[in-house]
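Holo prediction. Input below; ligand is magnesium ion.
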Amino acid sequence: MALIVQKYGGTSVGDIDSIRNVANRVIKEYQSGNDLVVVLSAMAGATDQLINLAHQVTDIPDERELDALLATGEQTTVSLLAMMLNSIGFPAVSFLGFQAQILTNDAHGRARIQEINVDRIRRALEQKKIVTVAGFQGWTRGGDITTLGRGGSDTSAVALAAALKADSCEIYTDVDGVYTTDPNICGKARKLKKISYDEMLEMASLGAKVLQIRSVEFAKKYNVPVHVRSSFSEEEGTMVVREEKDMEKVLVSGIAYDKNQARITLTKVPDQPGIAAKIFTPMGEAGIEVDMIIQNTRAGGLTDLTFTVATSDYKRAMEIQKNLAREIGTENVYGDENIAKVSIIGVGMRSHAGIAAKMFSSLANENINISMISTSEIKVSCVIEEKYTELAIRVLHDVFELDKAD
Ligand code: ADP
Ligand code: ASP
Ligand code: MG
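Structure of the complex:
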């Protein structure tokens, strides 16, 4: 007998028929004698709709109240699934974040799980109940509802699998695994049998939303093997696991893209000690994450500074920088929302030179201009014009021969 944590994403619980499909899958596992904890997302589109409602009330919703609102999306699906299972004779009970004792910090909208007390879930499992748990939410020591950031149900599932020492953690979604790149963008994308935690971390942080980055951090930290697969087929998906020797043989194993990026350029900034701190401290204080930063020195003790932020933070970041410009003496603040970041990822890059150059020349051959570059041991990222994203992905997929079997 095994303990299995399954997570079903929004499209897998998008309507009653889909929830019935989930119920059937759950029942099949239950009937083979396994204990089941089923983490659910909200119905597809539900979270967006709730955010939209909040924005009809105010431009800047109170963070605590927004979390209370967004958490209702998952409340709907976990109760419906438990209700459905009970009605056809399979004992089930639903738990919201606070009932599942998922304790987080109080960073509303991007809360981090600190601790999970699994006693109540265990008691329900001992009573042979199927446990459904609302993903994406937790609660603070002070008793407030929090949410874990978009896509956060993945993290709920992996964290629960770690806390329960589950035998397996299965993430069911609308694609049948992790591909070399988004299969909805590139027809030649190939499903990977396995991918290392580090590569998956990079893919997730660089825009591949198939797993939320924090879920991969948890999986790596607690060594939880994660099986990403489709809720609409029986096919084996992709295993996200510790790095194995043969993985190094592949130079580039995936391509990620992120269109939710905006660029801000400050021109003729005084080139003096302390200026960068002056520019970036208020951003940190406002909870705005700055991604790439480039500084170019000009003559005359001046410098130009360019950086990227998430599109959702763009307006606030521009406002902060425009206000600062007067104080600092920056000549101008320019912004551009029509950019995208395209990245190649692979643990094999550690031991091979020339990969970045090959990426740059492939983009150049298509006349795609690169405006920013950043690299790490296992990735190279380029900022390009957003309209060339799909083209860049297809070209890189061909050049690095990602369609060939590993
Ligand atoms: P869920 O609602 O099940 O959590 P998501 O929409 O969050 O599903 O994530 C699945 C989506 O991730 C896919 O539909 C696909 O478009 C996208 N995706 C991006 N990069 C990849 C990749 N490398 N492999 C698979 N899917 C990817
Ligand atoms: N419902 C949340 C979202 O749409 C969480 C999730 O789906 O994982 O972001
Ligand atoms: Mg998701």
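The pocket of magnesium ion (ligand 3) is lined by residues 9, 151, 154, 209 (CB under 6 Å). That is the main takeaway for now.
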